[in-house]
Design brief:
Glutaredoxin, two-stranded antiparallel sheet, five-stranded mixed sheet, alpha+beta, disordered N terminus
Length: 187
């Protein structure tokens, strides 16, 4: 695992004081180039869901799919988002659309999340970030002045032909599931 090492600088800074410098040995964060575009084929995947069974894009051939990528199971925003999609699951099904969530959490964490909040939608585990990267949902983030790699809250609507119909990046949770449902109904 990478480490951050703090060294005392012997050179004064611009203000004439000496301060600790951080040498970052973590591989540099890379920005997402958003290579995934509306109209392009949806990247294939096969991931374990919270119950341990594998779920593949091919399992839903001929059906519309909503894949929402969320940063971390059990956090407030992710919980609201998953609960909103669960609340609308029957409406999505009536429009011929399957909904699933994906995060970098373990299968066990996904199972706990589902059970604690009584979520009815499949929650997929992508601990290696392969699918997150393929869907441009893994990239550089910053919080409290620190930059790191993580899940970018993103939602993708795949049409029945297996093409990307719509992409929502930088998702704000409130009202989002309703907006996605409206777009799915129009397909």
């Amino acid at each position: 695992m990478s480490k951050k090492i703090r060294k005392k600088s012997s050179k004064p800074d611009n203000f004439g004081t000496t301060r600790a410098a951080t040498v970052n040995r973590i591989k540099p964060a890379r920005k997402v180039n958003h290579s995934l575009a509306e109209g392009s084929p949806a990247p294939p995947f096969s991931l374990p869901r919270e119950d341990g069974t594998l779920v593949s894009l091919a399992d839903f051939a001929g059906r519309k799919i909503v894949i929402f990528f969320y940063p971390r199971a059990g956090t407030p925003g992710c919980t609201r988002e998953a609960m909103d999609f669960t609340r609308l699951a029957k409406a999505f099904a009536a429009s011929g659309t399957m909904v699933m969530g994906v995060s970098a959490d373990s299968v066990k964490a996904q199972e706990s999340f589902r059970n604690k909040h009584k979520l009815s939608i499949p929650l997929l585990s992508d601990e290696e970030h392969d699918v997150l990267e393929a869907y441009d949902a893994w990239g550089e983030k910053s919080m409290y002045g620190k930059t790191f790699m993580g899940v970018l809250r993103t939602t993708v609507l795949v049409d029945a032909a297996g093409r990307i119909a719509r992409i929502w990046r930088g998702v704000k949770v409130d009202g989002h599931a309703d907006d996605v449902l409206a777009a799915a109904r129009k397909l």
